[in-house]
Design goal:
With 301 residues, the chain is α/β, with parallel strands linked by helices. 44% of the residues lie in helices and 17% in strands.
């Protein structure tokens, strides 16, 4: 089983945005050394987020690491031009080939933020309804199927991200993209049938011949279960409470393996609920050791 990291870049009590951003870069470097598979950021526009431009931070993190995959889970496509997103991620793929992930989500932001970012006179209802069309536009640009695609194809894999309804899983299957299902959001639903729908309806593409899915979970690993629960409660980070992975290293490994088995996936990404940087470091060190992420295949067996 592979494990990546999902980083919301949340501002903890007393932390500054600058400190939180540098912490993310350092954590990505630490995660690479520990054997984690990916480092994914998110796009949030609340004051509790240290940044609101994940594509720019992803490029900085990719430039500060050497092997780990880096991406955004996900770009809020309602707020951005598909052309702008395609150009930005093509550029990152050029500098960091086979290391970039482009995740897109159907979420939004406060109405005032959406209006300011889009400079659009249409109603928010109209904006929300156009998400599938924007996904198609983005894919056509990345795959060289649009007359506006000025450069040959050579783009990162696209992940459509969902948390509850099977709509996004079906959209990903229909267009032959990867799919990420989140149990780390307030709106999340613990429903493995969503991934079954994705796999059964998947339409292969030359760049994505097989379905590929990842599951996002939240929680905390500590030396003991009691300490893990105490630390998670002290974090003040608001996340979903669907199937949280909390406990000592053995318990976390068993919970992660059980979720991977239920959802039929070989990879998860982990959003920690740590209250401070030292706790974050320890959490990921314990997870890496428990899952043998940094071991050779022979050692892992």
């Amino acid at each position: 089983m592979r494990l990546g990291i999902l980083d919301f870049c949340s501002l903890r009590a007393g932390a500054t945005p600058r400190a939180a951003l540098y912490e993310s870069v350092e954590l990505a470097q630490h995660a690479e050394a520990l054997g984690f598979s990916r480092y994914w950021l998110a796009e949030h526009h609340e004051p509790t987020a240290a940044h609101h431009a994940p594509d720019m931070l992803a490029a900085l993190i990719a430039g500060s690491t050497e092997r780990i995959r880096v991406g955004v889970a996900g770009i809020l496509l309602k707020l951005h031009s598909p052309m702008r997103v395609a150009k930005a991620f093509r550029l990152m793929e050029t500098f960091f080939p086979e290391r970039i992930d482009l995740g897109v989500g159907a979420g939004g932001a406060e109405p005032s933020v959406m209006e300011a970012m889009r400079c659009d006179t249409r109603s928010l209802e109209e904006v929300s309804e156009e998400y599938p069309r924007r996904v198609v536009q983005l894919l056509e640009l990345l795959r060289g199927e649009s007359p506006l695609a000025f450069h040959p194809p050579g783009a990162p894999p696209v992940w459509l991200l969902g948390a509850a309804r099977p709509f996004t899983a079906r959209l990903a299957a229909q267009h032959g993209t990867c799919y990420g299902h989140s149990l780390a959001h307030v709106s999340s639903r613990d429903d493995p049938s969503v991934l079954d729908i994705y796999r059964s309806e998947f339409r292969p593409r030359p760049e994505q011949p097989q379905p590929q899915a990842v599951l996002a979970v939240t929680g905390l690993c500590a030396p003991t279960e009691a300490e893990a629960r105490r630390r998670a409660g002290a974090s003040g980070i608001k996340t979903g409470d669907v199937a949280p992975v909390i406990g000592d290293p053995r318990q976390c490994r068993e919970q992660l393996e059980a979720l991977a088995h239920r959802y039929g996936t070989q990879e998860l990404v982990f959003l920690d609920q740590a209250p401070d940087i030292a706790t974050r470091w320890e959490c990921y060190e314990l997870l890496s050791e428990s899952l043998s992420l940094n071991a050779s295949p022979a050692e892992a067996d």
